[in-house]
Amino acid sequence: MANEAPTNRAIAVGVDGSPESLAAADWAAREAAHRGMPLHLVHAWLWQPLDVPLAQDREAEAQRAQAVLDEAVAAVRSAHPGAAVTADVVQDTPVPALLAAARDAEMLVLGTRGHGALVGFLLGSYGQQVIAAAERPVVSVRAAAQDRRPASVLDAAEVVVGQQGGPQESAAVLGFAFQEAAARGVGVRAVRAWSLPPLYAYSPGSLRLADEAGGLEPYERKALAEALAPWRERYPDVPVTEHVESGGGGQVLLSAAEGAGLLVVGRRVRHAPVGPRIGSVAHAALHHARCPVAVVPHD
To answer: Comparing 11-142 with 151-298, is the CATH topology the same?
Structure first.
């Protein structure tokens, strides 16, 4: 196993009292134990009195917010007695609060109901906004009722990672996947999907390289092997399975991740007028993958 540089970052998790967020907190506690890091729980709450003729008690609302956090902390400490846990009620709206928590963390963990619905204070577009704009990896975790595998089975399953582009483009995503696998003592399955290009989609140079490799599929296999080479060298004890398949990226990746303990996908950082986007493959993974999904930002 490669030696990792020491870090004082924590694993951060957003909690809101829902079963999904409590499942996320439990996963984050196990992740913190795997990596030897502290765990930091965050609950976002901001007093915003309504413009209606009803009695509104700021102190009572603040106590309810603290109770949500205290319940999550108690659940984590009960299940993981040795965990180093800190917790904060952040007086801000959800998206800025969670983005700030992610910025200072090794990763941010959020609970999800699946099929696109991030729950509680993440309801609606909040979760998507956080995942699309976070500067650090964000992991979405389903409630235990949706993935009934015991934690010990889930954590012992392989890490599946989607690879695309060249070695530099996929470095952040592959690095996260290998670090996860090394921390858990499991293997990595690296998946590269390809499809027949439409007419004129490949440049003459690309077609020449594919022809020299013996065809499009051997060309794709070579590209995956080259991207993996530095990570195989850095993590020699991590078993690696190379998976190259023709088909749509999301469909191929979801099929390969059916029994995975974690699915890792990339999100290209774009500074576009329409705002940050998640991308089609990451979107499919977040909607339909049974296991936790890590979305890793990269250039």
So the answer is: yes
Q: What is the 3-state secondary structure (H, E, C) of 97-143?
A: HHHHHHHCCCEEEEEECECCECCHHHCCCHHHHHHHHCCCCEEEEEC
Strands 39-44 vs 138-142: parallel, antiparallel or unpaired: unpaired
The domains of the chain are located at 11-142, 151-298
Question: What is the fold, at CATH topology level, of the domain defined by 11-142?
Answer: Rossmann fold (3.40.50)
CATH fit for domain 151-298, picks 3.40.190.10, 3.40.50.12370, 3.40.50.720, 3.30.70.100: 3.40.50.12370
Overall residue count recorded for the chain in this entry: 299
Quote the pTM value: 0.86
Per-residue model confidence as pLDDT tens for the chain (299 residues): 444 544 679 999 999 988 889 999 999 999 999 999 999 999 998 865 554 444 457 788 889 989 999 999 999 999 999 999 999 999 998 899 999 999 999 999 998 865 444 444 343 457 788 999 999 999 999 876 566 788 889 999 999 999 999 999 999 999 999 999 999 999 999 999 987 665 445 555 555 555 555 567 888 999 999 999 999 999 999 999 999 999 999 999 999 999 999 999 999 887 655 556 788 899 899 888 989 999 999 98
